[in-house]
Amino acid sequence: MNILPFKFVPYVITTLCLCAGLVLAQDWGADDPFGGDPFGGLDTDSPSSDWGTFDSDDQEQGSTYDNDYSGSENTGAGQSSTSTGGRLAEADNNTQDAIIEGIQISTEKGQTDDEKIVSGYFIFRDKPTSYFYETKLREKKIIFEFNDARVGASPVPSVAEAPIKGFTIEEGKVDVNKTVRGLKPEWHNMIRVTFDLDAVPEVHV
Question: Is 110 within the bounds of a domain?
């Protein structure tokens, strides 16, 4: 397993910290710059490849995508609302979708006795083309969106570790040409992972 340089380090009022990384469930080769044990730490100085990054502060962010969800959802309990594992109809492009296979959580002690660091890793087969995240302060949620991605036939197991109470996974589609006048709509599959939290951290990417 190899890890891509995707990390956010929030500071929580309750002195809890939350980090997140993304792991690919495939071998990219020994010379891949993103190699290494995902639990050995993240390299914040590594190049970000073609992954988009978005700044976040203590205010809510609005999503830049207008997604047409088809009603498929995986919950933290590992259940799916569709008998096909949530697969969407074929998107209007030739991009191979990444398959989310799991969300892995680990914890470690912080610098003080009342501080705990929670690290999370999104495990994919193949690579999503881009990602976006936003925080919902009033709703106590952190939301991640991954483009050119979908859920697989197997449900994603439940994950809960304070301040994370659980998560849901939704599938939808996004028109990547929506903001460009004159271009035809080009629909790509996407997934949205919503974490329900006890407290929302201040996020820095």
Answer: yes
Whole-prediction pTM: 0.61
Backbone angles phi, psi at 74, to 5 degrees: -105, 135
Dist CA 133 CA 144 (whole Å): 4
Distances (CA, A) of 163 to 24, 130, 143: 25, 26, 15
> Does residue 144 contact residue 131 with C-beta atoms inside 8 Å?
yes
Structural domain containing residue 147? 2-32+52-197
Q: What is the Cα–Cα distance from 46 to 5, expressed in whole angstroms? A: 6
Name the DSSP letter for residue 85. T
What would the pLDDT profile of 141-173 be if each residue is shown by its tens digit? 999 999 999 999 888 887 888 888 999 999 999
138 DSSP 8-state letter: T
Asked if residue 40 is part of any domain, the answer here is: no
- Domain membership of residue 63 (yes or no) is yes
| Closest of 53, 43, 14 to residue 134, by C-alpha | 53
Element (H, E) at 72: none
Q: Which has the closest alpha carbon to 192: 156, 165, 176, 168?
A: 168
